[in-house]
Amino acid sequence: MGKIKRIGVLTSGGDSPGMNAAIRAVTRTAVYNGLEVTGIRQGYAGMINADFIPLQASSVSDIIQRGGTILKTARCEEFKSPEGRLKAYNNLRDAQIDGVVVIGGDGSFTGARLFNEEHDIPFVGIPGTIDNDIYGTDYTIGYDTALNTVVEAVDKIRDTASAHNRMFFVEVMGAEAGFIALYSGIATGAEAIIIPETSGEERDLKKIIEIGNSRKKSSNIIIVAEGDKGGGAFGIAEKVKDDFKDYDIRVSVLGHLQRGGSPSAIDRVNASRLGHAAVEALLDDQKSVMVGISNGEIVLVSFRRAVKLHKDVNHNLVELARILSV
User: What pTM does this model have?
Assistant: First the structure.
């Protein structure tokens, strides 16, 4: 590849608040450096279908505060095949795109890594997922906003739980990781937190609730990550209902409202930092890497490591949650 003159930017996989802030930062950093920018709509599907739009600095005005993504996002089975990636490559070359910024999660980075093994257009990734489960970065775009959305919802649920002597099992997102559940559980004072990274919590619920009752607790909130092997909030509530016959047991699944909403200040600032860093990485001839934030500083992590290695929750926080639930 010669000198980069035009970059493409896309959002892929599940949407997360702050993606627009990242698109804005990528576009304006590129323009500042004299580059042209092409928006790729509908993720990798747009790359295969040549769904490209030009972006200028003015194109990304008034989007930093908006949730979702102006470029739309989609999952694309065709890009998983060498033939699909070749079609995408030819479209990028025809559009004179010299480098691509991919905003997404580990599935998006897997596709980008495979593309860079086969073709010479460099891809750089920005971690965008509310689950905060990507290895190599302390932070992923959308996590802070999603966390605050959950906290606000659980605070309201506790009000009605206290008024009616109810026990609520609140299911939050986290198909394979319990970051949202763990942090929101601590932040809302949940009586128990059930996440995929630990086991046996449902068997401890009776003891935990009995201790709470002895201390005259007026409500009980149990936060459950959707991917927990106990079957999510409905599954665990069903298993333990006979232990809590004195309570009116309810289940609340927060669902996709966690993905929406205006991004928090933290998400806007960090998405802006990562968008700027991604363009700088392309200008520094980087490829097949993710830009992340570790200990407050920008870092580069290979797609291979970001996808292959597991990011675990802080088990000191798991212990803290248990101590504070007494």
Answer: 0.91
